[in-house]
User: Which sequence fits this backbone?
């Protein structure tokens, strides 16, 4: 068992509260993605699990062990850093073997494990090179191999794809998913990139201002956000929020609520509420159509309306969400 | 080429040559002066190459004073001082890095304060201490400052260098179970090699050219270091400039040689982009 559980974890840095009573569980063998905006405490959460930061309150368990006060090395977790943290003076082989050498494993075991890990992530041909001779993607693979080689209870990945270019990031995302399927270990992956979170995670935890807003499968979190923050944070373009006067042009909503609808659910055509097209952004196969009613619609690029054209906007009531105006919490349609 | 490089690019080379000439000329005149016949007065006009060239001044300097012994003594003192100073300064610098913020700030403040104290102000209390310890007329007082890294400046230099390393490197080492001493030895030191060499060179220059402390602590001529040997030359035949300059060349040559050997390590570090993972 290598589940990771945080129970009421609080962490402060002076007057700033980085983690404010976090309860979270990464199930055994699960790839849990923690996503949130910059400064929401997601890296701090990971560092607390790794033992690089001491928690002020609460408990952390890895498997059945309470590791709250345990030193980092004894927690038996591997961490992949955003900057990869490869030792520049060591070769790729020495970098991968580092943890085993520090633990004074027999040379035969070290060689076997290095060969196994480097083959798994595809860095066999770079073993005698130094990190500064590698590309970003190759360095990332080496960092993964270094994490794998020790066969830890769990893997902690701190924005490992954020320094890569767009193409390599997509490629490495797939690699990570494949790797997780092959080794089946518990992984906690931290990112600010919602696309990465939605595509990579078995489950997603959305973090904001040191608090977990929602935990669930990507589908659940995307289609049934528990509050306005989660609804607005996930999705590109962001969810449309309509206050009562504008919302009532589409549907009657209860007092003190805000209506939310995702851009891909907004239909443009002859029917619906008359609006005018303010701006059109084309993003490959999709177009983001900004309407003068404060709405954004995502439509296929080849059927986009022209800027300045008058169109009707509509969406199904079942696709719309209601949020409390004061608390931002989700409300159900009556 | 960046804008700044373009702006200064044309001036850089002549400026570098001018600075090099300003520093090399005195060295050249020292060497050429040492190759004049012994006993000759200084030339009336600058003399680039003396006529005739003679090495007799060197023979005379070594005959008059036991410069060979003094050179060996200086080498022994430097050989003890330099590694010890580098070891202690680097360990102290690394320890500063690992300390918690407040304790570190206090120690850095104290190091700066210690830097402000002139060496001469400590001469009398130090002399009293070493006399009480029975270490006067030994090399111990010359080597002892290396036990505190020779100077707080060297400790701070190491601290600043370690601080430049990405913190994730040390965190990765911690996660693998490395203890602080192993981190210093296997992660920190290999990554600050240019600074280690620079500090070693500075410590060597400080030890090699140290005149005041040997003058205060050493009485036995057999223990004299080279700067005291030069003073003996000056005392015994103060008008024999070629011989005095020959002694000066003997004293200067190892420092220049050490710099020439070391500079390739700290002036030409080029390991390509992303060397420190940034």
Assistant:
């Amino acid at each position: 068992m290598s589940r990771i559980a945080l129970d009421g974890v609080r962490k402060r840095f002076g007057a700033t509260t980085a983690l404010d009573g976090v309860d979270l569980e990464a199930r055994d063998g699960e790839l849990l993605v923690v996503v949130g905006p910059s400064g929401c405490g997601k890296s701090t959460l990971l560092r607390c699990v790794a033992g690089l930061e001491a928690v002020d309150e609460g408990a952390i368990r890895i498997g059945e062990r309470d590791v709250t006060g345990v030193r980092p090395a004894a927690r038996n977790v591997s961490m992949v850093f955003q900057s990869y943290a490869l030792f520049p003076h060591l070769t790729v082989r020495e970098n991968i073997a580092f943890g085993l050498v520090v633990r004074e494993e027999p040379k035969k075991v070290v060689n076997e494990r290095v060969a196994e890990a480097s083959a798994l992530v595809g860095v066999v041909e770079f073993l005698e090179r130094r990190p500064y001779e590698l590309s970003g993607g190759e360095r990332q693979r080496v960092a993964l191999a270094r994490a794998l080689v020790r066969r830890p209870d769990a893997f902690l990945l701190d924005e490992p794809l954020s320094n890569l270019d767009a193409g390599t990031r997509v490629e490495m995302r797939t690699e990570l998913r494949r790797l997780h399927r092959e080794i089946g270990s518990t992984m906690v992956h931290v990112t600010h990139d919602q696309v990465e979170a939605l595509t990579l995670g078995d489950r997603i935890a959305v973090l904001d201002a040191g608090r977990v807003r929602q935990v669930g499968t990507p589908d659940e979190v995307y289609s049934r956000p528990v509050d306005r923050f989660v609804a607005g944070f996930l999705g590109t373009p962001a969810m449309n929020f309509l206050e009562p006067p504008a919302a009532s042009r589409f549907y009657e909503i209860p007092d003190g609520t805000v209506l939310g609808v995702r851009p891909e659910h907004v239909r443009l055509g002859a029917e619906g509420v008359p609006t005018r097209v303010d701006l059109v952004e084309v993003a490959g196969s999709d177009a983001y159509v900004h309407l003068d009613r404060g709405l954004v619609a995502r439509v296929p690029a080849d059927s986009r309306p022209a800027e300045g054209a008058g169109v009707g906007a509509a969406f199904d009531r079942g696709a719309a969400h209601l949020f409390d105006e004061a608390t931002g919490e989700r409300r159900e349609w009556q | 080429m960046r804008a700044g490089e373009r702006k200064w690019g044309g001036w850089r080379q002549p400026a570098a040559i001018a600075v090099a000439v300003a520093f090399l000329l005195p060295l050249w005149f020292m060497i050429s002066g040492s190759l004049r016949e012994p006993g000759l007065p200084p030339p009336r006009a600058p003399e680039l190459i003396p006529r005739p060239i003679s090495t007799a001044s060197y023979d005379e300097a070594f005959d008059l004073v036991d410069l060979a012994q003094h050179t060996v003594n200086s080498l022994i003192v430097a050989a003890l001082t330099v590694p010890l100073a580098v070891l202690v300064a680097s360990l102290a610098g690394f320890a500063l890095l690992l300390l918690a913020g407040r304790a570190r700030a206090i120690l850095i403040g104290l190091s700066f304060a210690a830097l402000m104290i002139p060496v001469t102000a400590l001469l009398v209390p130090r002399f009293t201490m070493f006399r009480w310890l029975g270490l006067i007329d030994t090399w111990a007082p010359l080597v002892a400052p290396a036990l505190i890294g020779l100077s707080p400046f060297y400790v701070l230099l190491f601290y600043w260098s370690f601080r430049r390393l990405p913190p994730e490197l040390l965190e990765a080492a911690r996660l693998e179970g490395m203890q602080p001493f192993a981190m210093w030895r296997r992660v920190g030191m290999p990554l600050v090699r240019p600074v280690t060499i620079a500090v070693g060179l500075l410590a060597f220059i400080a030890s090699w050219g140290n005149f005041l402390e040997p003058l205060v602590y050493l009485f036995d001529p057999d223990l004299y270091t080279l700067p005291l040997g030069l003073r003996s030359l000056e005392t015994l035949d103060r008008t024999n400039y070629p011989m005095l300059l020959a002694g000066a060349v003997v004293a200067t040559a190892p420092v220049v040689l050490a710099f020439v050997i070391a500079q390739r390590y700290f002036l030409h570090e080029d390991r390509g982009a992303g060397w420190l993972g940034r």
Summary: Chain A has two domains: 4-225, 236-331. Chain A touches chain B at residues 50-52, 72-74, 77-79, 81-89, 98-99, 102-103, 130-133, 139, 146, 150 (CB under 8 Å). Residues 4-225 of chain A form a domain with the Rossmann fold fold (CATH 3.40.50.300).
